[in-house]
Amino acid sequence: MMVEELDPRKKRILQAIIQEHIISASPIGSRTLAKKYNLDVSPATIRNEMADLEDLGYLEQPHTSAGRIPSDKGYRYYVDQLISRKKNEAPGVIENVENLYQDLQDVQDIISGMAKMLSNMTHYTAMVSEPKSQVSRLKKVEIMQLADNSLLLVLVTDTGMVNNKIINLDQSLSTAKISYLNKFLSEKLENKLLANLDTNYLKEVEKELLAKVDLSVDLFKQFYNEFEGAFEPGGVKVYLGGTSYILEQPEFNDLEKVKKMLKLLDQEEMLNKIINSISGSDLEIKIGQENEVEDIKNCSLVVATYYISERAVGKIGVIGPTRMEYPRVISSVDVISDILSKLISKASG
Amino acid sequence: MMVEELDPRKKRILQAIIQEHIISASPIGSRTLAKKYNLDVSPATIRNEMADLEDLGYLEQPHTSAGRIPSDKGYRYYVDQLISRKKNEAPGVIENVENLYQDLQDVQDIISGMAKMLSNMTHYTAMVSEPKSQVSRLKKVEIMQLADNSLLLVLVTDTGMVNNKIINLDQSLSTAKISYLNKFLSEKLENKLLANLDTNYLKEVEKELLAKVDLSVDLFKQFYNEFEGAFEPGGVKVYLGGTSYILEQPEFNDLEKVKKMLKLLDQEEMLNKIINSISGSDLEIKIGQENEVEDIKNCSLVVATYYISERAVGKIGVIGPTRMEYPRVISSVDVISDILSKLISKASG
DNA sequence: TGTTAGCACTCTCCTTAATCGAGTGCTAAA
DNA sequence: TTTAGCACTCGATTAAGGAGAGTGCTAACA
After folding, report:
1. Under CATH, which number does the domain B138-231 receive?
2. What is the spatial distance between Cα B231 and Cα A316, in angstroms, rounded to a whole number?
3. Tens digits of per-residue pLDDT, A181-234?
4. Which nucleotide C1' is nearest A45 CA?
């Protein structure tokens, strides 16, 4: 899609229409525009310009005798050319939020807390993906005995994610065996990239282990299952915040649309698809049709990447109608993703 | 509220009205009733009976010239007197579900699986509370070292719930100290009722510990926090399934009502209040006004208790409009709560 | 040549009125 | 005690008639 250079007056008019539409959620006419914004020209002139902007694809007309609304292309131009992406939220916000959450040390808690925070700030639905397992290393693996024939397997990654699973056995293991197992597994698995701990590697480890000590095969099968979950590329959990905010948007006045949207947000795979369709850039905006997922082609996404010690690990963002308060949302997402990176880096030590 | 004995014809008519209303979701008139059900009397007679039933409080009239709808009292009579609470679902269901889920060994997975299952069966929103910590014992407490100054605290209850928390310290602990700590904590805390592990007791343990070994006070403060969460009576997590089913109910055709309901289900405390307001009986039904929580006085709850090895630990149930398919829902809740008890007892071994 | 005033025209939204139909309560007869 | 008949009620649906906001076009103007 070509991006023409617009003359200054067209720019001003486009910007005014978009800002007005973001507030009012309805088509904007030439008279309203002339009255509210000091454009120093008459409504008739504005009408001519609006017709031009429509021809260029920046505006749309719901029906002949209505005002104009921005098209996806219009929003794109607005976001790229007409607003400044300044990071400076009201000063103090950063410190406040950081203080508020600084005693959270559980990565999962931090993530869901930030999802809530972001949705509260923006009044749109927030989504945060868990740290990707692909790029994380297994920091700790430990088995502990719960009862005669039940064990607890604990896995901790260097991104701070903790997984645990109860394993029931058909035989009981001696304390000695367990501590041997722990030592063995530590050696073989810890500090390895999760991506490398695939079935092949695990099979090898199993072979080696069984050669050294007499154990039920069952145990290892259960290991597989637990690891598999961490492998699936689309299997990362996505945290939501403020789901009900979408109900406040006038574009979801229709019950059918609400239904569709809520069903969408219920499906974890969908969320994964949505958030993973965002490329690796620092702060990415997808407007309407630009989205790959069919069902959100009338929505916009503002998504940032967050980091653990400079390593890109997850995404945090906001989903709302294309008529979104981009400047405010962008700066909120920016700020919160920074805070998330900071908190999560600290927590995963 | 008095429960009169109704004559057989009134019973039949009340039952017919309720059944018809459950299907159609709209007021039922005398003509419809006479046509669809073989009541062997004319509409006029039915009208007289309906007027009587309204006087007795079993029916209501939305406006003068409409049919009748059941009142809360009417539903109550229906549930108590007019339907049989038989447990026998289509045979085979139990086995199927059990097989489907039998390899789940994680208690949290089982719970959320059963919530989904129940909501799929009933097409209403399902809610399941986690096993109460009050009645559970701490089965295992263990600290493991993740890095120089970060530890992982793992708590496992005999109800199979696993909690973990990362603890960051300002000092590093030697391996010897950690293993001493583990032994000490095991002795002092394991096999105790969680309800008894209150601040007082923990303070004592702390004193004793500090007398024996030189440790940062900080560590124990973090312990408190983790335990506190398990203490709060209202702090049990509630799992939901099929939230979007409420959108399919015609009584939630109004966007405002949907909004209210979804906001309600977003608040964990509310869910706790709702599910905890149900007394300890085996299978309890709350109809409309019978509910204590204001915002669901137009809803009905069907809630059963589930058990771990014969010990009542949690609730599982369904929330929907008062116009609910009680017979089907009751038998579903009954069956699923049994299965949940069985699975969870096995998993927490 | 770009800008503006004026005007006829269009299309949605809101209100009002009219009609339809399901259902009731009452009366009187069987 | 039951039933047929009938006038009446009230919500829901449809139709019609502005009101209002906005446009595009033409012609005049700086």
Report:
1. 3.30.390.10
2. 32
3. 899 999 999 999 888 888 888 888 888 888 888 776 677 777 777 766 655 555
4. C3
